[in-house]
Amino acid sequence: MGPYKKHWFTLIGLCIVMFSLLGYLGADIYRAAPPIPAQVVTAQGHKLFGQDDILDGQTAWQSVGGMQLGSIWGHGAYQAPDWTADWLHRELSAWLEMAAQERHHKPYGDLDVGAQAALRAELQAEYRGNRMGADDTLTVSERRAQAMAQTAAYYDQLFSDAPALRGSRESFAMKENTLPSAERRAQMTKFFFWTAWAAATERPNSKVTYTNNWPHEPLIGNVPSSENVVWSIASVVILLAGVGFLVWGWSFLRHQDDEDMAAPAQDPLTRFALTPSQRALGKYLLLVAGLFIFQVMLGGFTAHYTVEGQEFYGIDVSQWFPYSLTRTWHIQSALFWIATGFLALGLFLAPVINGGKDPKFQKLGVDVLFWALVFVCVGSFVGNYLAIAQIMPPEWNFWLGHQGYEFVDLGRFWQTLKWVGMLLWLVLMLRGVLPALLARNGEDKNLLALLTCSCGAIGLFYGAGLFYGERTSLTIMEYWRWWVVHLWVEGFFEVFATTGLAFVFSSMGLVSRRMATTASLASASLFLLGGIPGTFHHLYFAGTTTPVMAVGAAFSALEVVPLIVLGHEAWENWRLQRRAPWMQQVKWPLMCFVAVAFWNMLGAGVFGFMINPPISLYYVQGLNTTPLHAHAALFGVYGFLALGFTLMVLRYVRPQLVFSEGLMKTAFWCLNGGLVLMIATSLLPIGILQFHASVSEGLWWARSEAFMQQPLLETLRWVRTFGDVVFIVGAVAMAWQVVSGVRGSSAASHPSATVIPAK
């Protein structure tokens, strides 16, 4: 550890404490998850359904795309309703209408204010009261049972091809006969009921529901809890305190003696002859380009479904490629190409770290990993198609088809193979890193040790997504899912990116090894301090308790703190291109890293904190404010990182390549400009309008057909086309540069691109 002992002890100590907190509250999540009734009966003892029916309904929901078609508890897609909020409001409205007819013989809307208030008070008492018995039997009134049946009949028609609801299916971007089996439709309605029951029923000995009073539903008094308000204010105070301490630390603790090093006359990374495994990385870059174009085109196609519903400019394509399928492929292909870009950088660095030579059979391992990635990608996409088309047998769906959960949609078999691929990548990395790490040559190995740890975390922590099953409680599944989506992606990939860049720049002789090591250790500590327990900010309303909300609110505020100084990082990356003439060869990778810093600040920082405080997320969870943050953070940060890594690897595996200024300017500025247009002209204004509707009426209204099909919102969704087109132009230019570069068609002689053979 040497001079970095305090940095290492800080990082290790933080990881121990934060993971202990994550595990301790994880055990609480298991204990406090909303119960699934053994049976649901009426007050007269008539059995309606049981636990197996609810769980069978969960698997039926998974098979139609799950979170890619509407959302549950606010998590999922945004065109169709949130099924929890929608079911709850429909059932409550049906109950009120029945009660009004029974008591007053007239519709509820025709009653005077006093009579309406009396019925709402009775409604609130019945729905918020916890009528789960000691034997896990849930008892409902006869009137509620009738309201449940009426609501279920609506969903049975909606997910079939009933002509009466064809217009609603178009509005929700649902294909005709989404779930052909009447038996499975009936089971799915029981699952929807259970999610709504958990959202309306108070926990024992508590004044809040199992979902912390989410969603906003005035009919039964679902409003933000006092804990919600307290911890929202606390999160803002913690953010301000964190920013203040960061500014003080930045001002007084940073070393003043880290002056610019004299850049070497020639790029040190070109002093090694390319190894066979490095030459084999060209196909990885082609895979990045191909999946990137596929994902971007699918994004435009899927966005168009929000306008026409079942058609693409008048052509009915939903029966073959419905919204739920194209959105699944859009998200999964993004994860595949971004991960491939990161893996390619690691595989390029492994021989560099190993003294410019491949370990034995390294190229074979690189080739096997590539074809394994292709196999998993194609196999999972085919499985998604067969599941959503309802061709795959139901019992195979979870393993080979569609898990139904956003970002981990691929079947469990393909997910397992993907993890095996990550472990293979880790082995390939360690074969190059460990000999250098263990060599007794007196060199400073601390940065290399941190890079090794980040590689290990990437390889191992994806396995957290295997800790839930097909019939696992939704609350427990969400806990493990966010280990993958938040902790694995936003935590450990961030540390790997920071450390990998620091290693590359120090190897180039642009920054000192001491400065790179200190900065990387400090950054890792800051990222993981907020990032590990910050996972809980996704779980405020997923059936968890107040401590989860408190920890999530406090530490997710700290996640934003290190993003404040990213303007300095962007400036430093910008300056690097002027340090030496040969740095012009990596100008465009550096420009991508500048974009990463900007979008980290705006997309992850500003837009992220905008939805992080519990009081904010209470109203906006499941609205277009979420994809606003997701697009700006996932592509703006990790997408540009992966593209930057791809261009950097391309520059070295094709040493004679000179990037086309025309192509790269088009790619860089159109990608950034298109993303800005998507946000400013569509996602943000729609999100703001939905936010107002959610606060004033409830989430059900903000996601309803009547609200979403207003002319203004339809126009805003059409306007997004301009941003999509600009973005697509940038994506095509970027992919063209990568493909032509790998094939050598844009190579040109350049004095700084000469490779000096290894001695």
UniProtKB/TrEMBL annotation:
InterPro entries: Cyt_c_oxase-like_su1_sf, Cyt_C_Oxase_1, NorB_cytochrome_c-like. GO terms for biological process: aerobic respiration. GO terms for molecular function: cytochrome-c oxidase activity; heme binding. The chain crosses the membrane at residues 7-27, 229-253, 284-307, 334-356, 368-392, 419-439, 446-468, 480-504, 516-536, 548-567, 588-611, 631-654, 666-691, 718-739. Residues 37-216 form the Nitric oxide reductase subunit B cytochrome c-like domain. Keywords: Membrane, Transmembrane, Transmembrane helix. GO terms for cellular component: membrane. This is Nitric oxide reductase. It comes from Comamonas aquatica DA1877. The lineage of its organism: Bacteria, Pseudomonadati, Pseudomonadota, Betaproteobacteria, Burkholderiales.
